[in-house]
Amino acid sequence: MKYTVSIEIALPRERAVQLLADPAHMPKWLRGLVLHEPLSGAHGHVGTKSRVVMQTGQQKFEGTETITRREPADLHEIPTGSVVHFEREIVGEGMWSAARDRLTEAGPETTLWVSENEYRFSGVLMRLVGILMPGAFRKQSLQHMQDFKAFAELGKDVREAKD
Prior knowledge:
Blueprint: E1 2-9, H1 13-21, H2 26-29, E2 33-40, E3 49-56, E4 59-71, E5 84-92, E6 95-107, E7 110-121, H3 124-132, H4 134-154
């Protein structure tokens, strides 16, 4: 299963990518995040493996995230017109996924975030979920992007939201 979602953020690209890459901010915008801890490497850098635990309602997912691309490596003084790439793979029971994020300047004070997502399911239960609820994955990705936008632009913290 593959899909692409995108959103515009009313912040300069360099500021948006710095907020996105900062692990201290992840719990503020990544709804359902229980744990994100590096197992090897430095957070957000290519080759880093992290244990990730997410929870939605009563459903808990645990997997291993590997950062496969981060360009540029230094997120300060990013050249105008260049594209920032964040890519990662997550492997969990019955599932493999990849997210390929591109952040570009949509204007002097606006960032366009485009996220290409791919999922592969191996277990019977996960294959069934993928077949019966493909829209749920796209909806969750878009929710994470909207939550990041609200955090980045307005300082909203998903932990304080009333669902």
